[in-house]
């Protein structure tokens, strides 16, 4: 089982670790994390690929670049790039293209997946993790996520990945749940600005798709 010390407090850590174990992420890999945000996942990947690997941490928000640079200061092999997923262009093919909570925000998710697929070397892997936002519940009521362009993109993810020319190896949905103080409640408070108190929470299920680019 892969160890990700940097992701100890990530509420969606479990499906991420399962996916990365499924592809046998290892030392020396070259990866791209598209829509990397502050770079939590990029840095966690860097811990595994080590000094002989390389992580391209891509986001269209230039502020993310500074955050990644700060977080990745001790990982020389993390390269923060300001670029839109729709225009993804890297100096070399990657062993793994990864995205999480990205496609719900982009205008054209199919185009971004096509770009990610073309960045992968033949035989390499893709891991995409996107939510079904409306299936989350707080005290029984559906989550509201008004700023997302495709709040339920997770429900379409396996077919989208296939349409990008990739072979789906595994796909599943997983949702953290809880009540009262803890990681799940803090996550909801950070998203909504409201403390859910002792309400029951089921976070939006995250659909994970693990796929491979055909060898030729
Ligand atoms: C919700 S954050 C996810 C961060 C990270 N992937 C995670 O799971 O913790 C979404 C990120 O996608 C970035 N983003 C949105 N649209 C994008 C696009 N078209 N191309 C690249 N990045 C984009 C945003 O700037 C933001 O940093």
Q: Care to describe what's here?
A:
The protein is α/β, with parallel strands linked by helices and 216 residues long. The chain has one domain: Vaccinia Virus protein VP39 (Rossmann fold), CATH 3.40.50.150. The protein is 27% helix and 28% strand. The strands form two sheets. The protein has a seven-stranded mixed β-sheet with strand order 3-2-1-4-5-11-8, with helices on both faces. It has a four-stranded antiparallel β-sheet with strand order 7-6-10-9, with helices on one face. Helix 3 links the parallel strand 2 (54-59) and strand 3 (78-82). The mean pLDDT is 93.
Main beta sheet: 7 strands, mixed
Helix-strand makeup class: alpha/beta
Query: If classified by CATH, what would the architecture be?
Result: 3-Layer(aba) Sandwich
Give the proportion of residues in helices: 25-40%
- At the third CATH level, what is the topology name? Rossmann fold
In short:
The chain has 216 residues and is an alpha/beta fold. It has 6 helices and 11 strands. It has a single domain, classed as 3-Layer(aba) Sandwich (Rossmann fold), CATH 3.40.50.150.
Fold blueprint:
Blueprint: H1 13-22, E1 30-34, H2 40-49, E2 54-59, H3 62-71, E3 78-82, E4 94-100, H4 109-119, E5 120-131, E6 137-138, E7 141-142, H5 157-163, E8 167-174, E9 177-179, H6 183-192, E10 200-202, E11 206-212
Parallel strand pairs: 1-2, 1-4, 2-3, 4-5
Antiparallel strand pairs: 5-11, 6-7, 6-10, 8-11, 9-10
Bound molecules: S-adenosylmethionine.
């Amino acid at each position: 089982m892969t160890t990700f010390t940097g992701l100890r407090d990530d509420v969606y850590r479990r499906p991420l670790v399962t996916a990365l174990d499924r592809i046998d992420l290892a030392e020396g890999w070259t990866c791209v994390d598209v829509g990397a945000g502050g770079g939590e996942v990029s840095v966690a990947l860097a811990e595994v690929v080590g000094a002989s690997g390389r992580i391209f941490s891509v986001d269209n928000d230039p502020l993310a670049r500074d955050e990644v640079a700060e977080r990745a200061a001790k990982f020389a092999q993390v390269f923060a790039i300001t670029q839109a997923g729709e225009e993804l262009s890297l100096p070399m093919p990657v062993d793994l293209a990864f995205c999480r909570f990205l496609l719900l925000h982009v205008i054209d998710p199919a185009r971004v997946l096509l770009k990610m697929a073309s960045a992968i070397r033949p035989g390499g892997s893709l891991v995409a993790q996107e939510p079904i936002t409306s299936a989350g519940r707080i005290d029984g009521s559906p989550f509201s996520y008004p700023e997302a362009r495709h709040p339920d993109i997770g429900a379409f993810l396996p077919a989208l990945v296939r349409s990008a020319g990739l072979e789906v190896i595994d796909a599943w949905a997983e949702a953290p749940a809880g009540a009262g103080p803890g990681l799940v409640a803090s996550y909801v408070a950070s998203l909504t600005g409201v403390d859910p108190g002792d309400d029951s929470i089921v976070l939006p299920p995250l659909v994970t798709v693990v796929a491979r680019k055909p060898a030729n």
